[in-house]
Design brief:
This is DUF2911 domain-containing protein. InterPro entries: DUF2911 (IPR021314). It holds the Pfam family DUF2911. By secondary structure, this protein is an alpha+beta fold. It folds into two domains: about 1-40; about 50-195, no CATH class. The chain contains two helices and ten strands, in the order H-H-E-E-E-E-E-E-E-E-E-E. The chain has helices at about 1-20, 25-40; strands at about 50-60, 60-70, 100, 105, 110, 115-120, 130-135, 150-155, 160-175, 180-195. A six-stranded antiparallel beta sheet has the order 1-2-3-6-7-8, with no helix packed on it. Strands 5-4-10-9 form a four-stranded antiparallel beta sheet, with no helix packed on it. The longest helix has 20 residues, at about 1-20. The radius of gyration is 30 Å and the shape is globular.
């Protein structure tokens, strides 16, 4: 009987020693390792050709937000080529670009009420037509209808020798109650001022 107890005690001692030699990995570390392994197992994802992005700024107490997808030039002729002159363009890729303001704005002497708008343009060599449309949630210009225009005005484009590879919008504060909105792509920049009402 003593022999059996001794053998059982010895077996328990040896198994405890073996268990203490094993490395114990904390649960958090183990899950992090699994996450890294999962990520590395995924194939390399390509960067989107027209990444979704936004531009925003506070101008006085107005918050201006522009949401758009930013296509690249990729060695193409854009205006008067890929995008024909005198045709409505959604001013971005994929869904229509939209602009939201939480305060009334005044642009070119006209009131743009606080709200969210589809932003469209009609490019031309000499002047562009800028359009704020009440239908902000549409794919491209598929559902564009001129009768939904809230504000339309013309601007003269500025032409540069340098190429802006990806479409870029900027909202810039110029005073406590005024600012500018600009669109820059390929060799063309359009810009228009606004004041906060």
């Amino acid at each position: 009987m003593k022999n059996i107890i001794f053998i059982l005690g010895l077996a328990l001692f040896v198994s405890c020693k073996e268990a203490s030699k094993k490395e114990v990995i904390p649960q958090e570390t183990e899950s992090a390792v699994q996450e890294i392994e999962t990520l590395s197992a995924e194939p390399n994802k390509k960067k989107p050709l027209s990444p979704h992005t936004s531009a925003m700024a506070m101008v006085g107490d107005a918050h201006i937000h522009i949401d758009y997808s930013s296509p690249g030039v990729r060695k193409r002729m854009i205006f008067g080529g890929l995008l024909p002159y005198d045709a409505v363009w959604q001013a971005g890729a994929h869904n229509a670009t939209w602009i939201e303001t939480d305060k009334d704005l005044s642009i070119k002497g006209e009131k743009l009420p606080a709200g969210k708008y589809g932003f469209f343009v009609i490019p031309n060599k000499d002047q562009w037509t800028v359009i704020f449309n009440s239908n902000w949630n549409q794919h491209g210009k598929d559902d564009y209808d001129e009768k939904d225009d809230v504000l339309r005005f013309n601007v003269v484009p500025k032409i540069s020798e340098e190429i802006q590879e990806h479409l870029e919008y900027k909202v810039t504060e110029t005073s406590k109650t005024s600012g500018t909105i600009s669109l820059n792509w390929e060799k063309v920049t359009i810009e228009f001022p606004f004041t906060v009402n």
